[in-house]
Structures are given as C-alpha cells and as structure tokens.
Design brief:
The structure is a single chain. With 119 residues, the chain is of the alpha+beta class. It has one domain. It is 27% helix and 34% strand. The protein contains 3 helices and 4 strands. The chain has helices at 6-25, 37-44, 100-103; strands at 53-62, 70-83, 86-97, 113-116. The chain has a 4-stranded antiparallel β-sheet with strand order 1-2-3-4. The longest helix is centred in the first third of the chain and has 20 residues, at 6-25. It is elongated and about 50 Å long. The two termini are 23 Å apart. The model has no long low-confidence stretch (mean pLDDT 79).
Length: 119
C-alpha cells in the first residue's frame, strides 16, 4: 500500500472543494453570487462525514507517452458527504512517476495527474 499519503490528502481536499463549487455553478441560477470558500465550507459542513479513503489499487505501470518511463497508478475512493442516508462517493486515479528520484526532484516535485469522476 501507499506509505506517504500527505500529498494524497491535500489533493483529495482540493477535489472535494472543486466538486462542491461545481455543484453550485451547475445549479442553474445564473444570478447566484459565487460563495467564498468559507461560505462553501459552512454550507456543506453539516453533511460532511469524517474524511477517509480506501486505496483500491496501487501498481507500477508503463507510461503510454514515454516508452521507458514507469508510472505509479493509485486508484482510490473517498466519500465527501452523506445526504438523506446516502454517501457521495468519489473514485479517482492518481498517476505519478514511479521512481522516487524523479518525483522528489525539484522540477517534478508536487506534479501528479489526477483522473476523477463522480460515482
């Protein structure tokens, strides 16, 4: 399993905030003033559940775009809110260089690709 989840935690928190903002933007009311991040937090705080995630798969794969490169592919799922007894789940996939020397180098540090979708 993944040993260092601190970067994953930060990424997932950002995904949650983006999902919340997207739901507000897609609500259909064009006259709606955009809420501040603090107002979004207060609006959704009552339905938030304790932050947790499950790593469903953690593997090393070949890169499609760079033939000799190896990537670490992490599939995980987390739940952001519970409304009317139903949890809102979010599966996502994170791609990052498999070689620690590459992802710890200054020019690559903190650069990952996240593929997220709403379930």
């Amino acid at each position: 399993m993944v040993k260092n989840f601190s970067n994953v935690n930060v990424i997932l928190i950002h995904i949650i905030l983006i999902l919340i903002l997207t739901s507000v933007l897609l609500s259909g009311d064009k006259n709606l003033d955009l809420p501040t991040p603090q107002n979004l937090w207060l609006r959704c705080q009552e339905t938030l559940i304790p932050f947790n995630y499950v790593v469903e798969k953690d593997e090393i794969i070949d890169s499609d775009s760079v033939p000799l490169a190896k990537l670490r592919r992490i599939e995980l799922k987390f739940y952001s809110q519970e409304m009317e007894g139903r949890k809102w789940g979010h599966p996502c996939v994170i791609y990052m260089p498999a070689d620690p020397e590459v992802f710890n180098s200054p020019e690559k540090r903190g650069k990952v690709v996240i593929v997220g979708q709403r379930s």
